[in-house]
Amino acid sequence: MTTTTAPATAVGAPLLDVRGVTMRFGGLTAVNDVSMTVNQGEIVGLIGPNGAGKTTFFNCLTGLYVPTEGSVSYQGKVLPPKPHLVTQAGVARTFQNIRLFGNMTVLENVLVGRHTRTKEGLFSAILRGPGYHRAEAASRQRAMELLEFTGLAAKAEHLARNLPYGEQRKLEIARALASDPGLLLLDEPTAGMNPQETNAAEELVFAIRDLGIAILVIEHDMKFIFNLCDRTAVLVQGQKIVEGDKETVQNDERVITAYLGAPLETATSTDEQAEDAT
């Protein structure tokens, strides 16, 4: 993968349609009436100060939380509030804190992500007939293709815990891609990375988009997000205050104020309060 800038892409119809999503935990409103879309062929960014509600919003999109109000639709159908059903529908995600199976190999981690696309049931697995072996071989082939795509094929038999941090991030992305999503949600994919790893992550995201997968990404690295995204939305204290291209967002006085540390109402972190309330 040698892409370093975003090539022009044809943006298609809305893929993800979020309307009026609100998430309350008791008396805390962590996400407040947020609406947005992600179209086919797009990379959309979601930024905001620490504790703005970004991860809580992601959790609402992927079934970890059931929104108090509003709806989340993918390809015109409301997503069920169950993470595995959201994945089956075609929406995959990574997490802010890496969640790999450290004592499993790199290949095995990707195979775990493949299970939503296999149709062999319990009895087939017990009997281990021809159908099971064909499905297992196909899953391993697809997993190796994804490891090749992410540059990890040479480490397929290594334990995930022994990978360098940047490669663990890549492995989590490969595992998400194993479910064959149409939309990939990335939660701070470059957190903790050095500049070289960040550049590699940028190239990987462009390559994923070139496969026809739309992307919604949370990130704190402004250079990364503005190089990457067609549009960017800004959350502050659970509210979307602006959405648009790089110039629109960078020149908005509310965004400048928020990042300089002058909050709209309170400096309390909505993401942290959401975790406490949960």
TrEMBL record:
Q: Which residues form the ABC transporter domain?
A: 16-262
Among Pfam families, the record links this protein to: ABC_tran, BCA_ABC_TP_C
**InterPro entries registered for this protein in UniProt:** AAA+_ATPase (IPR003593), ABC_AA/LPS_Transport (IPR051120), ABC_transporter-like_ATP-bd (IPR003439), BCA_ABC_TP_C (IPR032823), P-loop_NTPase (IPR027417)
Keywords assigned by UniProt, alphabetized? ATP-binding, Nucleotide-binding, Transport
User: What are the GO cellular component annotations?
Assistant: plasma membrane
The terms under GO molecular function for this entry are: ATP binding; ATP hydrolysis activity; L-isoleucine transmembrane transporter activity; L-phenylalanine transmembrane transporter activity; L-valine transmembrane transporter activity
The stretch of residues making up the signal peptide is none
Q: What is this protein called?
A: Branched-chain amino acid transport system ATP-binding protein
